[in-house]
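Box 3.1 A note on notation
Throughout this textbook, protein chains are presented in two layers. The first layer is the amino acid sequence; the second is a token string describing backbone geometry. Keep the layers aligned when reading.
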Amino acid sequence: MAYKSDIEIAQECQMQPITEIAKRAHVDEKYIEQYGKYKAKVDLSLLEEERKNGKLVLVTAITPTPAGEGKTTTTIGLADGLKRIGKDVTVALREPSLGPVFGVKGGAAGGGYAQVVPMEDINLHFTGDFHAIGAANNLLAAMLDNHIQQGNALGIDVRKITWKRCVDMNDRQLRFIVDGMGGKANGVPREDGFDITVASEIMAVFCLSSSITDLKERLSRIIVGYTYDDKPVTVGDLKAVGAMTALLKDAIKPNLVQTLEGTPAFVHGGPFANIAHGCNSVMATKLALKMGEYAITEAGFGADLGAEKFLDIKCRMAGLTPDAVVIVATVRALKMHGGLAKTELGTEDLVALEKGIPNLLRHVSNIKNVYKLPCVVAVNRFPTDTDNEIDFIIQKCKELGVNTVLSTVWAEGGKGGEKLAREVVRLCEEEEGDFTFSYDLDMSIEEKIEAVVKKVYGGSGITIMPNAKKQIAQLTELGFDKCPVCIAKTQYSFSDNPALLGAPEDFTVTVKNVKVSAGAGFIVVLTGDILTMPGLPKIPAAEKIDVDENGKISGLF
């Protein structure tokens, strides 16, 4: 059989009109605003309808490697598998950022025969949500600098401005800039920089808001800088809330699309999980829960990032409790954690697998013993995986009291997810979780960071740099010490050092900077060499993307 790219598979799909998908999701036509034939926005008033919530299933993964894990693919394939075994199911996913689409990672609409469509739209402009978020972010930046230019009535210290402009592109040139040049009429010269849109606090606020009113309240609390006497200056102080909300009023409505097999999918919001909290919007998750017996969602990167933030931040703020967790792994990725190079993954190597499997087992133990939730391991099977390797994983997980299910959703779609679907149903119906957070909100900022590092990462403690100590003291004085922590660290290791693979021990995590996202309601803790504006690789994916004379896109994975 000739190999087909993801985009070729997606373009061959006979999509159903979005009105049909809305019916399948029990969404009355009066609640949908169509964006063409195959996409729609869903009116927020639907959230007020009385409906019983379904079961919430979180899909997460082992620590990512260049070999790939297929978390989004598994999420979509599991939803299609549940549909095939007769369950009423919806899926809730993040929207992809243009940065990775044109960079190295590619799109984020699934892969093979487990995708959400229209894939090209979802990976490109979609319904314009990210443009709206970028515009709101940059309107605020413009109003802030204008306030200073027009007399600075609030007494903002230009050296203490914390707000940055953003663009949804990997553009390292914009990380550190000097702006306001050209004399008095053109602003106040200062050192500045851009973040990628998905790292903007507006994105986090957007994803954690439960209504337009909540959105406005969160926006007004955002801190943009400090005065000469160290008092915080907020969006409310700058009177920017109304205009920013006007730019976001349509974007805040969740988007409805479909999988290749016609399962309804709410795709909405997209903060990075290594920088921000890595989950789709609260409103999309709540809609998915209302509209199906089972709502399948995912959180970005490994379980130490996306799942930790989903559970400790999103679930806590939104009052959500997952019924089951799926942890995605591949034999190939575990062998990389065991020290093999990407070129050596095609042959059986139980020694490398034994060295790498502690990574999976730590993630499994965290979900089961720290968060106390029922879970299953989904092994994405590749043709080069041997039965011995698969049996080894099954045996090791069984020792922790967790089942392992083989998933072939990339090659077979929902059919390859039926076994996983049955195990998820069993977990939801037969196993009762005792959901527990990894830390309490009344702990100090340092104690919360240390709890995550010790309990979830498996480290021995934290080292706080002098600058971060000052920031923690200031945030505690301002009353932000009762917020949850959102730790920004490398996605490639449990530690803050990307070279430490597997399940490292006896490491400390270095806390370099601590800042408050007062609108989102969490403290951002920057560790290691984390960047809030990625760069493009030597050969970006953008070089392979093209459009023919009929408007058909190619090369988009």
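The chain has 18 helices and 25 strands. The mean pLDDT is 94.
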